[in-house]
Amino acid sequence: MSAPLPPPVRILQLATAGWMSQVVSAAAELGVADALAAGPRTVEQIAVDIDAHAPTLYRLLRACADIELFEERPDRVFALTELGDALRSDSPVSLRDFAIWTGLPAERHTWTQLARSVRTGAPAFEGVHGVPVWDHIREHPDVLGVFDRAMTQTSRQIIGSIVAAYDFGGLRTLVDVGGGRGALLSAILAANPDLRGVLYDQPEVVAESGPVLKEAGVTERSTTEGGDFFDSVPAGGDAYLLSNIIHDWDDEPSVRILSHVRAVLPAHGRVLLVEAVLPTDRPALNVKLMDLDMLVLCGGRQRTEAEFAALLARAGLRLTRVVPGGHCSVVEAVPA
Predict the structure, then answer these.
(1) 208-245 pLDDT, tens per residue?
(2) Where do the domains of the chain lie, and which CATH numbers do they carry?
């Protein structure tokens, strides 16, 4: 076992970790992995393909090689690694746009005010950018495009595990509240041929769900409805799914959303929250960092099982179980 690093060296390593994330984000934005998809290439060849300055590109790629995104070979030739393959646009496990998102000012500049959020308990985004995060994203189409693709990519990574972990059998109609373009709902319907689905989100979002539903072969068993979950949710479901919705909001707005669900939930109904539940008995750095990201961006939070139980109770719901599903779990509740 190697000797532990001296504290100053370890602090330096931790304090400069943000530089590493910018390296990953820059490589993603430039499209280096796409340029290497067909095989190893020289820096000069890559530079021509991505319209970059070759000598400076080499400085980026040699850093990328040290964190195993790419492999550096003799004569400044670089090749794609298994890790770097996840930065390809067309990879089934691509997180390219999520990596780009973390380098955008909307995300990165907001984190510079983490200490202020800790002092005040309030999100930092509006103080940095002048408007709340959701308004900023809507007002900047370039940011909106990256954000939407990033959320689609991260959602894709949890879909298989959630569909496999939770038994949707016995349900008749599943309403996906804030379900985006329907990726998760489509996968659930495809795996449960007796189930019907309702996709509910902002009108302009669900308007783009057609190709997703069609590709999954579930168009005939699904309908879409546009609206705002702060105003109401559609009636008629015996289960209501909210995937990574509640973590975007602090307790008061979360209770408001859940209360709208409770208002239309039948006596036999279920509420299913797909969330990264914060454990209390083991380290979970990724979830704890996500919790801080929710804080600075929008005032949201990740919650423990006990915190979910208390939140659900305020909306007239009772937590029945938490079904592990990989990074995310299914928090199940019924009418109290």
Answers:
(1) 999 999 999 999 999 999 999 999 999 999 999 999 99
(2) 7-88 (1.10.10.10), 117-335 (3.40.50.150)
Coil, strand or helix at 174: strand
Per-position DSSP letters for 3-57, written without gaps between them: PPPPHHHHHHHHHTHHHHHHHHHHHHHHTHHHHTTTS-EEHHHHHHHHT--HHHH
In angstroms, the CA 291 to CA 289 distance is: 5
How does residue 113 score in pLDDT terms, banded at 50, 70 and 90?
A: very high
Spatial strand order of the sheet with 77-80 comes to 41-42, 77-80, 70-73
Nearest to 46 by CA among 59, 36, 56, 60: 36
pLDDT at 1 over 70: no
pLDDT for the residue 326: 87
Instruction: Please give the span between the terminal C-alpha atoms of the chain, in angstroms, as a whole number.
Output: 53
Catalytic residues: 247
CA 119 to chain centre: 26
Q: What backbone phi and psi angles, to 5 degrees, belong to 238?
A: -105, 0
Name the percent of the chain lying above pLDDT 90: 95
75: left (phi over 0), alpha (psi -120 to 50) or beta: left
Any alpha helices (H) in the chain, and if so which ranges? 7-15, 17-30, 32-35, 43-50, 54-66, 96-103, 105-111, 114-120, 125-129, 133-139, 141-165, 183-191, 203-206, 210-216, 251-264, 285-298, 305-314
**What's the pTM value of the predicted model, to 2 decimals?**
0.92
Does residue 2 register a pLDDT over 80? no
User: What pLDDT is stored for residue 197 in this prediction?
Assistant: 97
Question: Beta partners for 226?
Answer: 201
- Smallest Cα–Cα separation from 311: which of 271, 284, 280, 282? 271
Two structure tokens written together for 280: 């209390």
